[in-house]
Design brief:
Blueprint lengths: L17 H21 L7 H8 L3 H7 L3 H24 L6 H18 L7 H7 L7 H26 L9 H22 L3 H15 L1
Helix pairs in contact: 1-2, 1-4, 1-6, 4-5, 4-7, 5-7, 5-9, 7-8, 8-9
Amino acid sequence: MTNMIATPRKRGRPAKAVGDYRETRETLCRAGVAALTEKGFSATGIDEILKSVGVPKGSFYHFFASKEAYGSELITLYARYFVRKLDRFLLDERLTPLQRIEAFCQEAERGMQRFDFHRGCLVGNLGQEMGALPESFRAQLSAVLQDWEARFERCLEQAKSVGEIPRQADCARWASFFWIGWEGAVLRAKLERNGEPLRLFADIFMTSLRS
């Protein structure tokens, strides 16, 4: 049963369900993530998002004090989503460590293909336009990328321990290199509307790593 807010009703207006507020907020966040993965922050207007989901502007400012606060929340939500996706592959013990990375790359291409390569990576998109973004986003985006690198580094250390890559490989540097190159490949795939840049980068990365 939906819980109701236990506050006095205004005359002539029914009380709002807690679930309604939560659903509205989640709707705004889903629409925002979709817009930022496709268009970025600067090109995305609040009015445009509100119109797409049928939410009045007053409701938006009930949840978010500003567009900057909204953007910060979207970065947090996207990071949580992406970590779950990464862990689904990088922690899959049915595959060898390098096979996990290959599986992630293949699924990422399929994910972009589902949206005809119109959507990319929210973090990568915002990083590209950092000069026009609120400065508060800089540390937040850097922390997300560092977290992804740390997860890749752990997977690469496992690859080293089972002999898939040379023992002298610097896994931290390789993990950093992957995300620097991968974000560029995602941008190029979005530009060209095909997955060849993703496949090219993944192939060269894996070949170089093994050698």
